[in-house]
Amino acid sequence: MPKTYEAKRLEPGASIAIDGHGSFSRWQAANVLTDFDFPWIKRTPPATEFRALWNDQSLFLRYDVTDTDVVLGDGANAMEKVIGSDRVEIFFSTGPDLKPYYGIEFDPRGEVLDYQARFHRELDFEWACDGLKVATSLNDAGYVVEASLPIATFKTLSCLHRDDGGDYLIAGLYRAEFSHGPSGGAIVEDWMSWVDPEVSTPDFHVPTSFGTIRLVR
């Protein structure tokens, strides 16, 4: 069975202030997902926490990332900066065949790489997520990423699904865990996922890396 995360609904009229620090008190009501791991290497994973809450207007996301060696990539644009950086990611799909699906990647500075895609790795970087809001912060332990996405955007993209249990997203949650090589050597790129994709080489862009985010009432 696919993994499921239950995103709790906020009380009527309530919202979340996205400040990038995770300090807003309503976050305390969220379920905390911590089972991110390295599918392709044997290494104790640094802590990653994911939270989500929702109301009728938005889905609110938060990552708390423990990282003692934050890598921030250089580049002329957001894509180059994000691809070269530590980051967290969320994918969501129109269906289990990933035709199409959507990816949003957030680096610790608040740079965003978003795209529409089709399985396998047919990426359209001209796409931008309508209504996305992001705030981030770096701290002594690592970094925090907060974001909100309109429920209307999921509906428009045909990514908000419904069954007898209510509304849900087919979604993947990921982390790029980079580190500086010894003596200033090449950046070491490792990859963490909520769901083990069960493929031999690192790849999040496969149906087996997705679980379910259920919007519980």
Concise synopsis of the structure shown:
The chain has 217 residues and is mainly beta.
Extract low-pLDDT stretches: none
Strand content: 35-45%
CATH topology: Immunoglobulin-like
Radius of gyration: 16 Å
Global outline:
globular
SSE string: EEEHEEEEEEHEEEE
Helix-strand makeup class: mainly beta
What's the story with the biggest beta sheet?
A: 13 strands, mixed
Number of domain modules: 1
Count helical runs.
Answer: 2
Q: Please report the total strand number as a whole number.
A: 13
- Please report the distance between the alpha carbons of the first and last residues: 22 Å
Q: From the coordinates shown, what is the CATH architecture?
A: Sandwich
Question: What would the average pLDDT be, to the nearest integer?
Answer: 97
Helix content: under 10%
CATH top level assignment? Mainly Beta
Descriptive notes:
- It is built from two helices and 13 strands, in the order βββαββββββαββββ.
- It has 217 residues and is mainly beta.
- It has a single domain (4-216), classed as Immunoglobulin-like, CATH 2.60.40.
- Strands 1, 2, 3, 4, 5, 6, 7, 8, 9, 10, 11, 12 and 13 form a 13-stranded mixed beta sheet that branches.
- Strand 6 (112-118) and strand 7 form a beta hairpin.
- The model has no long low-confidence stretch (mean pLDDT 97).
- This is Carbohydrate-binding domain-containing protein.
- Residues 18-216 form the Carbohydrate-binding domain.
- One of its GO terms (molecular function) is carbohydrate binding.
Set down the secondary structure blueprint.
Blueprint: E1 4-9, E2 48-54, E3 58-66, H1 78-83, E4 87-93, E5 101-106, E6 112-118, E7 122-124, E8 133-138, E9 142-150, H2 151-156, E10 161-163, E11 166-179, E12 188-193, E13 211-216
Parallel strand pairs: 1-2, 1-13
Antiparallel strand pairs: 2-3, 3-9, 4-5, 4-11, 5-6, 6-7, 8-9, 10-11, 11-12, 11-13
